[in-house]
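Why show two proteins at once? Because comparison is the fastest way to build intuition. When a single record is shown, students tend to memorize it. When two are placed side by side, the eye starts asking what differs. So, the first record is below.
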Amino acid sequence: MSARTEIAAYPLLCRPILVPKPWGGRTLERVFGRALPAGQAIGETWEVSPLSQAMSVVENGPLAGSRLADALGGRQRSAPGREGEWAFPWLIKFLDARDNLSIQVHPKPRPPGQPQPADLKHEAWYVLYADAGAQIFAGLRDGVSERDVAAANGSRALVGLLNAIPVAAGDCVYLPSGMIHALGAGILVAEVQTPSDTTYRMYDWDRVDGSGKPREMHLEQGLANTRFDVRAADLRPRPARAAAGWSAACEPLVRCDAFQMDRIELRGTTEFVPISNRPEALIVLTGGMRIQFAHGGAVEVAAGRTVVSPAGISPMRCSPLDDWAMALRVTVP
């Protein structure tokens, strides 16, 4: 084992990347005490990003200052559909919607047996905060046809073709690539997705920028990538069991080809055994936790932060910083 591999075998914290958006807000200040730039509406924070155009930088331990790709090197398994490439399997974000996000869709899968697009974007939202009456828009209503979507494309009529689904803190929904969707106003979510930033906007609530210009739409691509075989019932595909290797209370939330997400509760010290040869992530939601790893090292992860466990890391011991902690555990299925 090389010295570099030994150095890399510890839990990594990454420097969040803040992304202003016209629909963004400042809920992260209130929920997690996150310091945000004055006067900016922050719509997204990229907590862990393997994308070359916005690569995460490690901020803890011997590899502080390293790009995520360099810190993990070739030790990570490629994402589904990207065999042979280096790829951390997920892009992990927080989304803060002060206003409705655009109605959008991501590239749809190809039929079985055909090569799949590299920019598929399967994603899951875990609701951290929601105003009373908040809702998401996801999936076409029963009976909606391609002709209906084509006629409404680019207009407010498209909203009426989607399921409007009330949500509250603690809800989790899955959005397969190709399902039309929009995050509604007044919601803060943790988002786990495959590492793609390809989005086709089909309606943006008639918003304009400071110059009075609307945002770019992608009507033709959006219609071409809309799936008509997914409905509201596909939003919560709960796995039969939680991923192995966690001895505390663990509730399975969602599973797809790209990831499994479980909600864990930590009320005392417990052993955490990462799945062999797979990267993992813990998104700490409440309370914060201390993770002790090999050679006596430890990292403290505050609520609102995400820690990455590289593939092949040794078993660790986790303890809540207070009496209780809750996190989302993200694994390769």
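Second record. Ask yourself what differs from the first in the token line.
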Amino acid sequence: MNPDVVVVGDLMLDVAVDAPALATGGDVHGTVIARPGGSGANAAVWAARAGARVRFHGRVGDDVTGRVLRDAMTERGVEAALVVALGRRTGCLLATRVAGERSMVADRGANATVSPEDLPAALEAGAVLVSGYLLFHPTSEPAGLAALDRARAGVVAVEASSWPLVEAYGASRFLEATSKATLLLANEDEARSLTRLDPEAAAKELSDRYAAVCVKLGPSGVLHAEGGRLTHASAPPIEVRDTTGAGDAFDGALLAALARGASTEEALDAGCRAGAEAASSDDAWPPAEARP
């Protein structure tokens, strides 16, 4: 039986550091949290959290980190179709918050080696999601393009992923590379990088290129454009803990709902609720025991 949702993307270890200051050459006390992450993997586990059958295609290194992340994904109900990249590290992201200033260092590791050979000849599912991060690295770009080309689904979604990387890749190039997608998922900054327009105008313009567009507005919800019609869905009010992965949670729950026959309005509501749940937690992934 084909899965409801197939995700092709990145799987990372996220390490978050929060400290009042750093002492060059010395030690300080602070908070250090290590947790599974990666934009594509985040979406996959939240799609499973919504009750969908999910398969994730990606790569990990031949290290302990890769084995731990595979187990964490499996525990959350995702079929982890992972290739082990020999001699490579599993991807890792370090996010530091020192005296209120946030800095990030990303090592894509094995994610940069994802290849078309890692994917089946056809990606058959109710919905397929391809992470834009694959396109933004020259060694994984062919895999991203192959995933879009091989998708056989009612919804073929692409996530814009990062406005600085969209800028570096080029808006026109991104739009051309993702022309086979039927749904674009982007936040305000990514939509602006693609169009130089405000969110509402960007959603309308981008819907001329894609069958549907979602522009995520954080706590203000999401704009959905399809067939010339613009819809706004609200996000439930929450106490924000950490917004890391909230947009990915939206993606996963939205696609799980669409793949299982929900209306657009129902899917948008499911996505907004999942995004809010993720943002109100310290973890980008739901706990393993939280699956229905």
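One difference worth noting in the second protein: The two ends are 20 Å apart (CA to CA).
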